[in-house]
Amino acid sequence: MKLFILLYGIAGILTGSFLNVCILRIPEGRSFISGRSACPVCGRTLRALELVPVLSWLFLGGKCRWCRANISIQYPAVELGMGILFSLTCFFRGTGFRSVILCAFFSLIITAAFIDGRHFYIPDGLSLLVLILGIVGFFADHGRFWPEFLRRMAGLVICGGGLWLLRILTGGGIGLGDVKMMAACGFFLGWPHGFCAMAAGYVLASVFCLPLLLSGRADPKDRLPMMPFFTAALIMTALFGMNSASGIWDCGACRNRNKEKACEASELTGEPVNPRQPGN
After folding, report:
1. Residue 70 forms beta bridges with which residues?
2. What is the residue-wise DSSP string for 194-256?
3. What pLDDT was estimated at residue 222?
4. What does the pLDDT read at residue 145?
5. Is pLDDT at 275 greater than 50 in this prediction?
6. Distance between CA atoms of 234 and 228, rounded to whole angstroms?
7. Are 150 and 255 in contact (CB under 8 A)?
8. Which of 13, 50, 81, 265 is found 20 to 30 A from 103 (Cα to Cα)?
9. Alpha carbon separation from 98 to 30, 39, 104, 142, 176 (Å, rounded)
10. Measured between alpha carbons, how far is 17 from 99 in angstroms, rounded to an integer?
């Protein structure tokens, strides 16, 4: 298990390096697949040793080797953060295909959070990819078809419809990108987890904004990107707030605990452990 956690962490760091490229290039309309990485200030093409995640930033002291311009701490922060997040996903959710889907989900919403935080918009392509991941996760779930489908559709309608209603009531105060992304996330997590994540996102935003408003450092009319708060809530919900009732997010640790309880009950009653019980 420790080896898998390490491998997930390395994969997360490498993914974070790619996400930094996406965060920079997508808003500029540039390809995030082709083209060499370069210093955003002097334009000098970076060498292979200057692209090593986290370590190259530390080795260069956070500055470009050629023009000595400061390199944003975002780069190592995203890389290291994704490494930690992938490792946590492996630890709490196991090493199977479903964990891979969850890691991909985290990658997409974190990219959306950074783009929204900088440019106040969420690319439709990211929302579409989240929806596709939700569909893949739905078919990867071996539970009952219709109950799971209805649960996910309820998440989509309630999250997307709820934000759409708020958008109407506030005269466009809610961005259309937020509506699309949270509708997709609602399908990915399903009811009630998608709604809980959306509500928690607003709670986090309130906790962040209230001190700024009371101190006069922010105005109620200022624009606020919501996706960073939604993303934090979505990650917490997906990692810690979901149980085996939702099928795809059945936690490996929970399965082990259930199996231990079943074995203890078997020893007390003398009855064999039911192999069809959750966790066996």
Report:
1. 63
2. HHHHHHHHHHHHHHHHHHHHHTTSS-TTS----HHHHHHHHHHHHHHS--GGGSTT--HHHHH
3. 87
4. 85
5. no
6. 10
7. no
8. 50
9. 31, 37, 10, 11, 29
10. 20
